[in-house]
């Protein structure tokens, strides 16, 4: 059974199609990156997968269960979501992680709930920060707390919106290695949006390239080609292999980039 099945999903804002007949699948022990320029529907697809938005057509199933038939509490047992931006409150790191147990707890927290929260924290290197307040820790540490809270739900599917956003290059790799380690150790399925193709290529198993609300390419490393990147991003690149890893190198001689540099201030 597939962990995630997206079948023919369509979604519109104000009668404008944002997602058009989107289909993809994901299995256990897989990291899948959704890639593409701004405004192509990546975050909308993620929100549909999390049941924050309801598609006008198509279906989304998690572990065989149709999202239209799953209540919020049961969905939280299947799916853990880490947003790109989250509000910071005056709570301790341990209490923030323990919140992830709410979908599975009874009237109050049990010894098992406390043990799960503590196990997740120690596995992410947060054990010495138990009593620290989340509004006093670094951005990288707060990202770990959010991931720990999602893992405390014991989900089958982990959904991440730009997990490396606003992190320096060292913390980007620390965070991505941590995600990779968790996925392999727990056999999770992980779907995430990414802007950095090289970072995604280094840590992901499969790739969803989106263009104009549709999937331009879906598959393993074989879909990372100069042709696909040119179609999706409108730029010429070289795709090379180095030490068994793929690297994408932009071609400096590109009219589109020249136009941007000639018109400073244009977004």
Write the layout of secondary structure elements.
Layout: E1 4-13, E2 16-26, E3 30-35, H1 42-49, E4 57-62, E5 65-66, H2 72-78, E6 79-82, H3 93-98, H4 111-123, H5 139-152, E7 157-161, H6 169-186, E8 189-193, H7 197-203, E9 206-211, E10 214-219, H8 226-233, E11 237-242, E12 245-250, H9 255-262
Parallel strand pairs: 3-8, 3-9, 6-7, 7-8
Antiparallel strand pairs: 1-2, 1-4, 4-5, 9-10, 11-12
Task: Name its key features.
globular; 9 helices; 267 residues; alpha/beta; 12 strands; single chain; disordered C terminus
Description:
- The protein has 267 residues and is α/β, with parallel strands linked by helices.
- 33% of the residues lie in helices and 27% in strands.
- The strands form three sheets. The chain has a six-stranded mixed sheet with strand order 6-7-8-3-9-10, sandwiched between helices. Strands 2-1-4-5 form a four-stranded antiparallel sheet, covered by helices on one side.
- Strand 11 and strand 12 form a beta hairpin.
- Helix 4 crosses helix 5 (139-152).
- The longest helix has 18 residues, at 169-186.
């Amino acid at each position: 059974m597939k962990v995630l099945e997206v079948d023919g999903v369509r979604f519109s804002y104000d009668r404008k199609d944002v997602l058009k007949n989107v289909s993809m699948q994901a299995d256990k022990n897989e990291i899948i990156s959704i890639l593409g320029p701004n405004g192509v529907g990546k975050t909308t697809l993620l929100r549909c997968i999390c049941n924050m938005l309801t598609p006008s057509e198509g279906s989304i199933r998690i572990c065989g269960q149709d999202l239209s038939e799953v209540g919020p509490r049961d969905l939280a047992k299947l799916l853990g979501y880490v947003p790109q931006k989250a509000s910071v409150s005056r709570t301790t790191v341990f209490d923030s992680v323990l919140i992830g147990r709410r979908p599975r707890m009874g009237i109050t927290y049990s010894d098992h709930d406390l043990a799960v929260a503590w196990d997740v924290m120690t596995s992410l290197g947060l054990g010495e920060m138990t009593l620290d307040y989340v509004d006093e820790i670094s951005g990288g540490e707060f990202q770990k707390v959010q991931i720990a809270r999602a893992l405390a739900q014991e989900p089958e599917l982990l959904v991440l919106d730009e997990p490396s956003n606003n992190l320096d290059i060292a913390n980007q790799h620390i965070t991505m290695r941590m995600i990779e380690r968790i996925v392999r150790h727990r056999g999770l399925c992980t779907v995430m949006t990414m802007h950095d193709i090289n970072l995604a290529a280094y840590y992901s198993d499969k790739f969803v390239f989106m263009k104009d609300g549709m999937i331009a390419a879906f598959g393993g490393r074989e879909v990372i080609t100069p042709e696909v990147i040119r179609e999706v991003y409108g730029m010429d690149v070289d795709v090379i292999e180095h030490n068994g890893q793929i690297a994408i190198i932009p071609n400096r001689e590109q009219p589109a980039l020249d136009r941007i540099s000639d018109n400073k201030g244009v977004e």
